[in-house]
Design brief:
Chain lengths: 305, 228
């Protein structure tokens, strides 16, 4: 008896597994079709979700970089007050940077942001109505709201201003969308894997005599399992073809139609290349994962010696 | 080479199929296992290739204790053992040739070796001219010869047969027994569970009789000992 366990697989053997695995795909046509269709549905949703989420994330990141709080200083405050205020703000733990901006600088900013109209403001240059301000950035942009209200409650601060409510809403929306999306996708992935494992179960039962003989003549469990892994893998990969085509063409269409229309500031789609291919790769990966996982679930139970 | 020491087998449902089994079988022996239905013959036979794991005691085959063998060593144990069943267990969609080569393919023998070994063994069981037939185109005796070919194609040191003539008429049974004797003559140990009084009483070999899960008789050139 040869008790040495060979683990390396010969090319011939691998070809055999590939052949057996793909044969099974055609043997139980309708079950395979149902499994592949469920992977397809899952992955289309995953694809759409991914594209939306990644774009929202990208957008949020861009906005986050710009999020800063302007704390306007009371006109009555003297230099001493300003210095102690600065200290107080710096002591807020969430604050990362603080910068003083004189009212002259504030005016310049305002004028440049207004473009051509800003030139008219030159007239008021003599009599600047603006306040001095601190420009504050927070460690985590999500703390913006909290920090702003803390700063506003301090002495010598007349008012604060930060990004907008839009930002807050974007953050919340982003977060909810993420949770709902992940929940939905998890449920779909489970369903698809379950369907695949059922399909493979049928293959295994149909081939129980064959498996029995394989065991009898000394085939290793690994050898017996491989075709089923491949069957699951193939189903997963087949299921990812349509979603990939859908995402690639859909995003191409969207991107081509929107790239010149920047009707909302900072709303810009992530460039088609290589983003779409990365998403495609993720879809392929999830498809393969669903397939292999589904096959492991059924094979493990059935092939106990 | 086969040694059973105080073997007991109790199944999950609480039925004790075998107990107090002490048996030694030398390499090259031919042994009949006889006894009434349900006496434990099948369990006894299935212990040898680890289809059944003993509840206690040792089953030692060629120095390997099957009571302690690791799961992943079992396939390698079985490569040295050929098993033949009453119902042949052939794959209906494969030809005679493929049914036999299957046994070598799944243990990853090389194609060249497979071709040579399969043709040799089909010659031995006299089925070379029916290599391309499907099992359902063959008689019962021919199908059993295919299953014997599959069992011995890897040149096992031990051949186990569970009522191999159970489904066959007397003439065909003798053909099968002739092949068994040939296999045995090549040095392979043969252990055969049988209900055939004729065979046991005519082709005299060692007889182990099992009743109620115990060995009640073990004699060289023994008789069947039961009314058929």
């Amino acid at each position: 008896m040869n008790s040495e366990v060979t683990t390396d697989m010969k090319a011939r053997t691998f070809k055999r597994h590939l052949r057996e695995g793909s044969k099974n795909i055609f043997r139980n046509g309708w079950m395979t079709f149902a499994s592949v269709a469920s992977v397809t549905t899952t992955l289309i949703l995953v694809g759409v979700f991914l594209v939306i989420m990644l774009n929202l994330n990208e957008m949020a990141e861009k906005v986050e970089e710009d999020v800063q709080i302007r704390a306007f200083i009371d006109l009555a405050a003297n230099q001493e007050d300003i210095d102690s205020l600065k200290k107080e703000i710096t002591n807020i733990p969430e604050v990362s940077t603080i910068e003083f901006s004189s009212k002259e600088e504030e005016l310049k900013n305002l004028m440049s942001s207004l473009g051509a109209d800003g030139d008219m403001m030159a007239m008021v240059n003599q009599d600047n109505p603006l306040n001095d301000a601190f420009i504050i950035k927070t460690e985590d942009p999500l703390d913006t709201f909290d920090v702003a209200s803390k700063v506003e409650s301090l002495d010598h601060v007349s008012s604060t201003e930060y990004g907008d409510q839009v930002i807050q809403k974007l953050f919340t929306f982003n977060e909810y969308a993420r949770y709902i999306g992940i929940g939905l996708i998890t449920a779909l992935v489970l369903t698809a894997a379950f369907l695949i494992s059922n399909t493979i179960k049928i293959t295994i039962m149909a081939r129980s005599t064959e498996i029995g003989i394989m065991k009898l003549v000394g085939a290793t469990n690994g050898f017996i399992r491989w075709p089923f892994f491949i069957e699951g893998l193939l189903m997963g990969i087949l299921g990812s073809i349509i979603p990939i085509i859908f995402v690639v063409s859909g995003y191409y269409y969207l991107f081509e139609n929107m790239k010149d229309k920047t009707f909302v500031p900072f709303f810009e789609l992530i460039p088609f290349n290589p983003f779409v291919w990365q998403v495609s790769l993720i879809l392929l990966g999830i498809g393969a994962f669903i397939g292999v996982w589904g096959s492991i679930m059924s094979v493990r139970k059935f092939l106990k010696v | 080479m086969i040694e059973l020491r105080d073997v007991r087998k109790t199944y999950h449902n609480g039925v004790t199929a075998l107990q107090g089994i002490d048996v030694n079988i030398q390499q090259g022996e031919f042994v009949y296992v006889v006894g009434p239905s349900g006496a434990g013959k099948s369990t006894f036979i299935r212990l040898m290739y680890r289809e059944v794991k003993p509840s206690s005691g040792d089953v030692v085959i060629n120095g390997h204790n099957l009571a302690e063998i690791k799961e992943k060593e079992i396939p390698h144990l079985r490569r040295g053992i050929g098993v033949v069943y009453q119902d042949f267990k052939l794959l209906p969609s494969l030809t005679v040739y493929e049914n036999v080569s299957f046994a070598l393919e799944v243990i990853e023998d090389s194609p060249k070796k497979i071709r040579r070994k399969v043709m040799d063994v089909l010659d031995l069981v006299n089925l070379k001219n029916k290599a391309r037939f499907k099992p359902d185109e063959l008689s019962g005796g021919e199908q059993q010869r295919v299953s014997i070919a599959r069992a011995i194609v890897n040149n096992p040191h031990l051949m186990i047969a569970d009522e191999p003539t159970g489904n066959l008429d007397p003439d065909t049974s003798w053909e099968i027994m002739k092949i068994f004797e040939e296999v045995n003559a090549r040095g392979t140990t043969v252990i055969m569970a049988t209900h055939s009084k004729d065979i046991v009483n005519t082709l005299k070999k060692r007889v182990i009789a099992i009743e109620h899960g115990r060995v009640v008789r073990d004699e060289q050139r023994g008789d069947y000992g039961y009314e058929s």
